[in-house]
Structures are given as C-alpha cells and as structure tokens.
Amino acid sequence: MSPSDRCTVALVDPVWVGHHATYFRAFIESFLEAGARVVALCPKPEDMEDMAREHPDSLSISKLEDPGDSKLFRGRDHDPFTTRQRWRIAGEAIDTQEEISGWSVDFVFFAWLDSYLRFMPCAGTADRLLGRPWTGLYFRAQHLTEQVSGILAKVKQRLKGDFVMRSQDCRLISGVDERTLPYVKSYSNKPVLLMPDITNEADGNPEVPLAKAIREKAGGRKIIGIVGLEKRKGLLTLLRVAKEAADQGNPWFFAFTGVLWWDTLSDEETAWVKDYLADPPDNIYLDSEAGMVPDGEVYNGVASLFDVFFAAYLNSLYSGSSNVLTKGALLKRPCIVTEGACLEDRVKAFRIGLAIPEDDSKRCFEAIERLLVDQDWVGQPLNPRYDDYFALHSHEKLVEHVREMISTAMAG
C-alpha cells in the first residue's frame, strides 16, 4: 500500500479498565502492520506515548473525553443521553485530529462498540453525529441468541440498541464469541468477523513484588489463580473451594489477585467475604486493597506461577469469551471454565481445561484434582493443544483479521 492510497482508521475506545489498554495497543500495532495510518482516541493517551514517538508519520493519539456514568441509572455508564454524547464526542474528536494530522479518516473502528449501542435512540442519529463509515467490536451480544416474547422483553432488547448496527454507515461487526456472530449477522444484515481474543504476549517477570509475595506464601504448593475479583468471574465459588481445601488439608494454594470489586456483591455476600478475610486460611493470597495487576511483564510474571487458571464465570452474569484461555495457552496452563458457553466448547475442542456447572464449588474442587495430574473427567490424559489454540488468538492472527476488516470497510 503506497502512501497515496493508505487508508486512515480512527480507533476509538471510551473505556480504560481491565484489558482495554492491551487491546487498544494491539489494535494500533495491527493496523500499522496492515499498512494503515491510525488516529487513536482513548481516555489515557499518555499510556501510548511510546508508540506515538515510534510512529510519528503513521499514528496520531489524543485524549477521548467521556460523559461518565449515567445520571439516570445508578451503576451504569450508559443511558439515552450518555450514549448519544459518546457518538457526538467521537465525531468531534476525529474532526479535531484530522485538522491536526492532515489525514482524512476513511472509517472508524469502535474497540468497545457496546458503549455506543445501549439506549441509542436511532441509527440515523448515530450516522449524523459521527459522519463517517464505521465498524465495531461487539463483546456482549449474547442476548441476540435468546428468543424473546412479550412486549416488555422486546422493549428491553430494543433498549440494547442493536438496531444501530443496521445503520447505513456501518460496514462490519466484529466479535470474539463465535456463537453469537450468526445472530449478529442475521440481525444487522452486515458482514461479521470473528476476532481473536488476544492477550499481552510479553515475557513475564517472576521477580516483581506481587509474584514474589505469592510464591513465598505458597511455599511450593500448587497454585490455582484468578485475576480480577468480582462476582461474575466466580469469585465466591473459588473462595468456597479454597475454604474446603483448607478444611481438608489439601496441599493447594489460591492466588486471588487484582481489584476486589465490592460493588458486584450483595450486602450478604459482602458480609461473608469480610468475615472470611478477617481470619483467612493460610492457603490464600488476597489483598482486598490491591490495585489492578498491570498487564505485560507483571501480569504474565504472576500468571506464570499458576498451575491452574480459574475462569469459571457465572453465565447468568457473563457468558462470553475470555482471553484467560489465551493466557493459559500462552503459558501452557489448563483452565477451569463454566459449562454452557463458548468457553466450554473451546476447552473441549482443544483439551485445554475442564468445564464445571455454574457456581458448583464441589465440581470445581474435583476439576482441580484432575487438572493437577493432567487428567480429563474420565481419567484419560488431557493432551492439551495449547499451541493450536494460541495460534488462533495470537497477534499474527489479529493482523490477518485487521487486514480483512480494512478490505471490507474500504469496499463500502
């Protein structure tokens, strides 16, 4: 692609928690490798300053303001006003960056499309506010697989804003959950693209303070680990398993790392966890005041200590993809997931872990026993295909998919 016919992509993400920075950086790298210029808009452009210095002629990064949490719906970051504001803010920010860079944006890629759909009043409004062709990565589209009946259910689904994908300016919808894409395609009547669920592939540093603290406290015991402590990730399930293991004297250690999101727990659950942590067993590491685990060498250094990854999400709260499986495949560690969602299909297909019923601590206990001796549910060797799974979710695969996205978006 010559300089004269290079496309320019506006990469937009209004969220900056969890793995958002990792995805954002990976998307920038992939678009650049695919030959595009990138106008990148995010809440913390300073986190990407090294990339801006390295690619001054191909990358322009700027801060993306956000209207913040909803004033109408407590605990949500979207309502009819904030969602509309996000489209307007994105369009105006791109206008400004076009003037600064001298580049004309060919299409917009929303790295977290979810924030631009919920409660949006109509697709035409989105088109007018943005004024450009767009694509997006839609994470939480599982509801489209459900059959709805009754006026209330249909209104609730309408408020999710999926109809915006039918916009004249929408060129393509991406997703990381292969089960939902046929429904997205049918509903939106747009091309769909299965994106790899990438992870940061940096070498881990096992000597970072957090990793050293866990290793020293584990004292040689096998480690079952979770990163990010919230209800939807099965936090309470794993805490019960840790308690049972301590009661039985099992030689296991449980590493609970990252932020403890108290607001995801009910009052009763909060009281139970606080009581648990007031006199914790010696087989857990959990710092309720800890911050997020920085991605890259810190996260991978900690994760490299895990003998088993715990990723048994509560399907009732979240049933989509998780890059914990990608991290496990990168480090060649098995994962425990929940039955009935795409993660179960993946661990079965690639034999990279075991699936348990939702919130079933007894079955989780049994899964740990089997995975620590490399066995499946019927006692056969697990024979995991880590490399095959990782190849489907690697940076190289992401570049392939980005090239396809560019081709589809530019074809109009």
Regions with little confidence, pLDDT below 50 for 5+ residues: none
Provide mean pLDDT, rounded.
Answer: 92
**Strand order across the biggest sheet?**
3-2-1-4-5-6-7
What fraction, in percent, of the residue positions are helical? 25-40%
Based on secondary structure, the structural category is: alpha/beta
| Helical stretch tally | 15
Order of H and E elements: EHEHEHEHEHEHEHEHEHEHEHEHEHHH
Biggest beta-sheet profile: 7 strands, parallel
End-to-end separation in angstroms reads 18 Å
Oligomer: single chain
Q: Which word captures the global form?
A: globular
The gyration radius over C-alpha positions equals 22 Å
Total DSSP E strands: 13
Strand content: 15-25%
Topology diagram in text:
Layout: E1 8-12, H1 20-33, E2 37-42, H2 49-54, E3 59-63, H3 80-101, E4 107-110, H4 123-130, E5 134-137, H5 151-158, E6 170-175, H6 181-188, E7 192-194, H7 209-218, E8 222-229, H8 235-248, E9 252-260, H9 267-278, E10 284-286, H10 297-303, E11 308-311, H11 324-331, E12 335-338, H12 342-350, E13 353-356, H13 361-371, H14 386-392, H15 395-411
Parallel strand pairs: 1-2, 1-4, 2-3, 4-5, 5-6, 6-7, 8-9, 8-11, 9-10, 11-12, 12-13
Structural account:
Helix 7 runs parallel beside helix 10 and helix 11 crosses helix 14. Helix 2 (49-54) links the parallel strand 2 and strand 3. This protein has helices at residues 20-33, 49-54, 80-101, 123-130, 151-158, 181-188, 209-218, 235-248, 267-278, 297-303, 324-331, 342-350, 361-371, 386-392, 395-411; strands spanning 8-12, 37-42, 59-63, 107-110, 134-137, 170-175, 192-194, 222-229, 252-260, 284-286, 308-311, 335-338, 353-356. The chain is globular and about 65 Å long. By secondary structure, it is of the alpha/beta class. The chain is 39% helix and 16% strand. The strands form 2 sheets. A 7-stranded parallel beta sheet has the order 3-2-1-4-5-6-7, with helices on both faces. It has a 6-stranded parallel beta sheet with strand order 10-9-8-11-12-13, with helices on both faces.
